[in-house]
Amino acid sequence: MIAAVQECGIEHPWAHQALAAEHALDGDSVVVATGTASGKSLAYLVPVLSTLLEGSRAPNGRGATALYLSPTKALAADQCRSVKELSQPLGTAVRPAVYDGDTPYEEREWVRQYANYVLTNPDMLHRGILPSHPRWSSFLKSLKYVVIDECHTYRGVFGSHVAQVLRRLRRVCARYGSSPVFLLASATAAEPAVAARRLTGLPVVEVADDASPRGELVFALWEPPLTELHGEKGAPVRRTATAETADLLTDLTVQGVRSVAFVRSRRGAELISVIAQEKLAEVDRSLVRRVAAYRGGYLPEERRALERDLHSGELLGLAATTALELGVDVSGLDAVVICGYPGTRASLWQQAGRAGRSGQGALAVLVARDDPLDTFLVHHPEALFDRPVESTVLDPDNPYVLAPHLCAAAAELPLTEADLELFGPGCADVLPQLEAAKLLRRRTRAWHWTRRERAADLTDIRGGGGRPVQIVEEGTGRLLGTVDEAAAHSTVHEGAVHLHQGRTYLVRSLDLADSVALVEQAEPPYSTVARDTTAISVLETDTEIPWGAGRLCYGSVKVTNQVVSFLRRRLISGEVLGETKLDLPPRTLRTRAVWWTVTEDQLDEARINPEILGGSLHAAEHASIGMLPLFATCDRWDIGGVSVPLHPDTLLPTVFVYDGHPGGAGFAERAFHTARAWLTATREAIASCECDAGCPSCIQSPKCGNGNDPLHKRGAVRLLTTLLREAPEPPEEGPGTEADADALPGETASASGRGAGG
User: Fold this and answer.
1) Largest CB tally within 10 Å, which of 10, 281, 345, 623?
2) What is the CA radius of gyration of the chain?
3) Contacts of 687 (CB under 8 A, 6+ apart)
4) Separation of alpha carbons 550 and 693, rounded Å
5) Regarding beta strands 497-500 and 479-483, do their DSSP bridges make them parallel or antiparallel, or are they unpaired?
6) How do 236-238 and 259-263 pair as beta strands?
7) How far apart are CA 207 and CA 727, in angstroms?
8) CB-count burial class (<10 Å; 0-12, 13-18, 19+) for 63
9) Which residues of the chain have pLDDT under 50?
10) Confidence (pLDDT) at 323
């Protein structure tokens, strides 16, 4: 094995690679959390391949096996190539094979019988491998290592599902007499060992000191300028991050600088490459073919060709989605442009780390979107550069996650009392409910699955539960894809613009009874955004602490949401073209929330009169939702909020922020624990924005059900200042510093009165 590594040109491993390999060979589960291009793959491949090599001497040639899990098919295919290259000198001792939805059926039997290094994803483990474990018995009996790559991506509800899938894997392995060691690779993350332990349910050793050499990285924060245009309620509109990124990519290409622009959406990637190509045509027509887009949805051979052209220098500029972020080896880049904060510091450093991979200096530019969080970060660089990356948030005890996995586990092997410790303390509450629903039946000492259908089909580990809505092309009957039932009302309502593989479709009708949305191809000059109304009631308060005269609480809530209309916004400029009413039924969600109340005395101190109370609470709610991704690994679309001048359950002015997933995802809990830091940053984000009365950079929300009305910027700053003056001492301090609350000029009143949904 050492000779094989040396043949690849590596004389000595870095210290962190050696340490991780040592722990793995000693039988300790380990997480390697070091920077991009620090050789994490080698850290786990050396012990794994070494063990497979020894196992190949067994009579059946399969004395040891290993399982590799990646969040994407592309990464598994990339890793398979790396393993084949590294293990080439070892002959046939290492037999790697990809086993996913694309693997032909005739190959699958060979993989089960003969492969000793199987590369797959959590979805395939959940639906394909575990339910048919008897066919995998010889592989599972010899399983020595489970490699979990890019484990920081397993967060929120998806991460909670994966945590339960891994517990099911450990249980089935124990049935065959094996107890595999878990090797996890993560981008730099806060408390990686804690996150890895929550994910696997096992004690995990942390290796986080990066010993690999790095060139200098110059990091620029770029805020697009304000334009003459006006958006909702007359708010000023900034030039879009998309247009600015396209300009930067064009300039870098003209100068011969090899660059990648990372964009959050597939449409954004296509748009940036098209704009850059048009601008390059004006400068030098030969440069047009040297810029392209890269995203999911392309054929594998198209993606490989783009990666090859980028490696060789044939391509100078690439506009890419995160499909390129995860582990796919792209070396020799000079610059990375990041179009909008990617949601977490972990992702930001992952993307920025793609530049300068050969040890030379490099440039990274973060272009801010019109959003409270992006605005805050460009004005407070210390929040990016002086703070550790986030903790990965997941909650395996969420009953909505736990229940379907207990059913799946019982279908794999009858569930016994001894198994309950493995699946966590939530089992005591969930099992009686599953018995009452006649999904499980207790016979003597074990629970059995009672249905004829497959238990693994009860849940889609990437979705939010419920029956997915199928998106069908009206003229041809072709199935284009699916959307989670929870998201269907706001994304595929009648009149919505739907994007699929670079093509634009208009939704003609949404049939909720049959779970079908009919679409037809079109080229509308606008995008659509759904508007909704939200009401919230408190079911149970788990924890509350005094906050001056007010309270900070965390507990269970019921959210009733109804999509009532949608806006049409002009592409590029974001200008609002009109609003159309919709008639959709309300939906309810039981989830977890954090909420804070304020008293009459606190309102008097903050000089908040009844006319501006609703607008002040609403503005604080919007901005706090925009800021929470800085403290929990979530997206603003994973969370919702409601603000009410007088809530019937608290009898006080109240602001709620809740998890947008059944049973919660851990985000509201994280907000509760970092409330002082989180709300300090929220206040800073509003106060430091240069607009007069509020804009999308501070208090306007792209998903506000009330059309961003009422909102009161100065009232929100004064309210949060008063609240923070009496904040309990936190376990950690937030980014940002106290600014003068009354440094904002002018004063305007805004009519208020109804609860506002974020």
Assistant:
1) 623
2) 26
3) 717, 739, 741, 743, 744
4) 27
5) unpaired
6) unpaired
7) 36
8) middle
9) 327, 730-757
10) 65
Task: Calculate ∠ Cα 632-264-700, nearest 5°.
Answer: 65
Angle at 641 between CA 636 and CA 647, to 5 degrees: 170
In whole angstroms, give the CA distance from residue 685 to residue 623: 8
pLDDT computed for residue 729 by the predictor = 67
- Which H/E stretch holds residue 123? helix 122-124
**Per-residue model confidence (pLDDT) at position 441:** 96
pLDDT for 492: 92
Residue 172: predicted pLDDT: 98
Q: What is the DSSP letter of 355?
A: B
Q: At what angle do helices 713-725 and 675-687 cross, to 10 degrees?
A: 150
Pairing assessment for the beta strands 236-238 and 226-230 based on DSSP bridges: antiparallel
Tell me how long the chain is. Answer: 758
CA 185/CA 35 separation, integer angstroms: 10
User: How many other β-carbons are positioned within 10 Å of the β-carbon of residue 462?
Assistant: 15
DSSP code at position 333: B
Which three-class secondary structure string do you get for 634-664? CCHHHEEEEEECCCCCCCCCEEEEEECCCCC
Residue 385 CA, chain-centre distance (Å), reads 21
| Cα–Cα separations (whole angstroms), residue 606 to 481, 596, 710, 741 | 51, 16, 18, 10
Joined together, the tokens standing for residue 728 give 């309990």
Residue that has been written with the tokens 């995203």 in this structure:
295
Task: Name the burial class of residue 594, with classes exposed (0-12), middle (13-18) and buried (19+) by CB atoms within 10 angstroms of its CB.
Answer: buried
Query: Residue 746's pLDDT is what?
Result: 29
pLDDT tens sequence across 10-39: 888 999 999 999 999 999 999 998 877 778
**Residue 439 and residue 756: Cα distance in Å, rounded?**
39
